[in-house]
Amino acid sequence: MIYRLCQTQEDWLSQARAMALGAEKALSRRDDGHSGPMPMVPLAAALRLWESAGTTHDKPAFGIDEVRSDGRPLAVREEVAMATPFGTLLHLGKDTPSPGPRLLVVAPLSGHFATRLRATVATLLRDHDVYVTDWTDAREVPVEAGAFGLDDLVAQIIAFLEALGPDTHLLAVSQPAVATLAAAALMAEDRNPALPRSLTLIGGPVDPRIAPTRDEILSRLLPPEWFERTTVGVVPERFAGAGRRVHPGALQWSGAVLSDLRQHVFAQTAQFANLVTGDAAAADRHRDRYEELRSVMDVPAELYLDMIARTFREPELMLGRMLWRGRPVRMAALRETALLAVEGEGDRSCPAGQCSAALDLCDSLPAGRKRRCLVDAEHDGLFEGAVWETQVYPVIRQFVGSAAA
């Protein structure tokens, strides 16, 4: 029932958007050649705002065709390095014999496609040979592929690292922080030759007990059954993953909007002004951003519920109780992989302290191989925008370069 409601809303809003944009074009044509004030502009602008209404499951393209490295342009091509039912290891190869240190970017599997990190990847490409975990929309994964929980995410990260081989560096943005730490610890204990040389965590909830958010508090107050009953649906017959239990991406996006409603209202008000005044550049930037944000993907129910139960409700890794397929995850085994934790003082999704808790957790790592980067930014500012470009990325570039050396 939950999924059908989300899908019905998405289908209806898709039709409403098409009707609104059609009406907007008709109104705009009526104002063509008008010598005085254009009375239809505000109404046309209001209709144009429907572009940002609702969600889609249309996967955006990375669209990174070129990057400047060492002051010269280099062509970028997308190559599939490894394909699995739940995700693809995507290589964004540069046209150069010296692409830089090999870096695997683990994108969040929390409701948006990996293209949400387009700006992050474009910047990293300047100095690194970049691979990305391009996760699959769970509603397109047949049930025959099996379940995909936290243990499976850890296994997938290990498999991707093994496919890349030695001397790879690892960078995780937000949600997969615990999974990447667990993967590195298991590989270290096994003396796996593909153990990453460095691990960078950007705004990841390693210890959500520190300055907990509203959602993190609710995950401890409400019983697990409540989340399974109210936030998990079954994919209907019209999709390849029919019968799979998922956390709908539309539900995740709705929650994100409601939790930061003031910012979204401000953004839409500003867009209305852009459209009325004819500021095309600003309007296009808003449109591109919201097109990305509205493109959602469903998350396997097993992973979503595991994150609530094993990361937020009871932070198993921090408590030393995490088991991976029955095997204890021992963070003390991590002795060589350099570790960087990036946090934002204004981050309301993952408050400062939650991510850097990993530095204390990895107590076998020498102090010289651990570093914290704290900047004045909100969550998104840690991996895109001015702060990312000028304050965060230079630290990551130096950190990875030092570990590679």
From TrEMBL:
<dbReference type="InterPro" id="IPR029058">
    <property type="entry name" value="AB_hydrolase_fold"/>
</dbReference>
<dbReference type="Pfam" id="PF06850">
    <property type="entry name" value="PHB_depo_C"/>
</dbReference>
<dbReference type="InterPro" id="IPR009656">
    <property type="entry name" value="PHB_depo_C"/>
</dbReference>
<dbReference type="InterPro" id="IPR010915">
    <property type="entry name" value="PHB_depoly_PhaZ"/>
</dbReference>
<dbReference type="InterPro" id="IPR051321">
    <property type="entry name" value="PHA/PHB_synthase"/>
</dbReference>
<protein>
    <submittedName>
        <fullName>Polyhydroxyalkanoate depolymerase</fullName>
    </submittedName>
</protein>
<feature type="domain" description="PHB de-polymerase C-terminal">
    <location>
        <begin position="203"/>
        <end position="401"/>
    </location>
</feature>
